[in-house]
Amino acid sequence: MPDGSLGIGFSTLPGARRGRGAVSNPPNRFERARSNAFDDGWNTLAEALADLPPLATSLTRDASKSAIAWNDSPDIGFDRAVNPYRGCEHGCIYCYARPTHAWIGLSPGLDFESRLLFKPDVAAQLEQELRKPGYVPRPLALGSNTDPYQPVERTLGLTRQVLEVLERFNHPVTIVTKSAGVLRDLDILTRLAARNLVQVCLSVTTLDNRLARIMEPRAATPLRRLAAMHELSRAGVPVGVLTAPMIPGVNDAELEKILEASHAHGARAAGYVLLRLPLEIRQMFEDWLNAHMPDRAARVLALVRETRAGKTYDSRWGVRQTGSGPYADLLAQRFRVAVKRLGLDKARENGSLDCTAFTVPGAEPRQLELL
Fold it and tell me: Please, where are the H alpha helices in 235-355?
């Protein structure tokens, strides 16, 4: 486990905001205009940046006309997902979804974790799409892009509304979250689990609270996530752990301990993903490393390149999730050995969720229409 020597304190980082993960707000890659902070000659820039007020979260209605996002990626275990929110207040510095904020004219940096979009009609839209003739059910993912139980869910309740629709339709669903807030919906999840319609996965990246605080500042503490696993498992809800991302030289030494702790708290399935640094995340992650871990930043980046054929990222199908080379191969072997030893490789896979119970509420038999 990390020794807690993570560099200078969060509140003193130039450009950092208390309670936020990113230490920068890079420009939208689609915009031609660029702005940069500069000192006007009075040597006040560093002082001004060190005394920035807390960054409030803002909410904007998302005008999307559909609820289900489809994909045909060959290395992803689902083909459809629902994301009630764009952006994520958890502020995980490594989040692969950050670059998507550029699609709506915002920065993948601090904007991603403070300027959120929410879909007020997501449940109604989902119901319309499930009622379409010819719809074929398969497990639907909640939490594929941003966390469905991020803090704003406590007041908006959009994820619960989605689950209520899925329950009425007997539709299978998988959930990935870093939040113990998933326990709020234990009543629905228990009923779905009784019909083999749900699996929940808690993402745990570290057991070190100090590291978690700077890496994913507004997510539940590691112990809270483990406690949520225990409660879900005790209620009969199939639960797993996702050790993602594994960051070479930062948290990868904890892999086995995370798996062991998760198994002890009821997890019966496991997965992992190697750190991914597409587009703007590369520079943001490097800035974060230099700010929080200046003594080992160069070594961490060297290890990242070692797992990506000399680059900081390799986007090829089948490689982007696990990397390549000796270091990545060793991580994969460690994972395989640990899950086999713990029995985490014997759980049901997503494909075993029941897709045959799907029904459209209120649908009338149509056989007589043929007469």
Answer: 255-264, 281-292, 297-306, 326-342
